[in-house]
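Appendix B. Chain record.
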Amino acid sequence: MKAAVVQLCSGHDPDTNIQSIQALVTEAAEQGARYVQTPEMSLCLAGNRAKLAQFSGADILEEAALKFSRLARKLKIFLHIGSMAVPLESGRFFNRSVLFGPDGQPVGQYDKIHLFDADLDEAGAYRESEMYEPGNTATMVPVGPFELGMTICYDVRFPALYARMAQAGADLFAIPSAFTVPTGQAHWSTLVRARAIENGAFVVAAAQGGHHENGRTTYGHSMIVDPWGQVLAEIDHDRPGFALASLDPAASALARKKVPNLANLRGFSLSVNHDLPR
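Structure tokens predicted for this chain:
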């Protein structure tokens, strides 16, 4: 199966973002991609709750979903919209990833479980939980010959999530993201490749890239990695575009046979002794 990552520089306006998605997804599908993934917050990348609410109303989401459904059906592809902000009665949002099947019907969705809440010293504090409500359910769905595990961005730093799905049969992981430049330069490739290697699975990771309307700058470098950790395709910059790679499900089985860490995994207890001299 041929897969594609679509790299965007999403702004506030959903219509403008949808036009970019439609153009790049269509071009990727014309080059043979059957599974096409867009980044986190593809529909609207906003920096505060008020702006996000302005461009993420129920009518806007309904119209966007209809357009994505028609696009998937027209191109006969699995179209994975990396994520959209879905409003809740609490005033917060779910950071929701949605997968449309080749018939245009939604076949899977996932609400981002791990939210980035951190004290950043001189940069102040960042609280993703002030805008978003965390999900609590990991999601897997068949995509062609693969079993896809759906995750989003910050999830990549929590290996147990991927191990749990790999043990349940996932051999392809989605990590649509919007990494900032400093963490992207330091960690992006290492984290994505690590999740592939330790689980013997393909990873498809579409990313936001460039300077956004809300003032944020993201790293880009969308990539597709095989179960041995080899980068099959990468957009080696932060501008919009797409990249493709062919995925062979036999490669996952072979990697897990060579390094059977999932099969060898054991439970254990933890002993902590504070009485020893330091």
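Further analysis of this model is presented in Appendix C.
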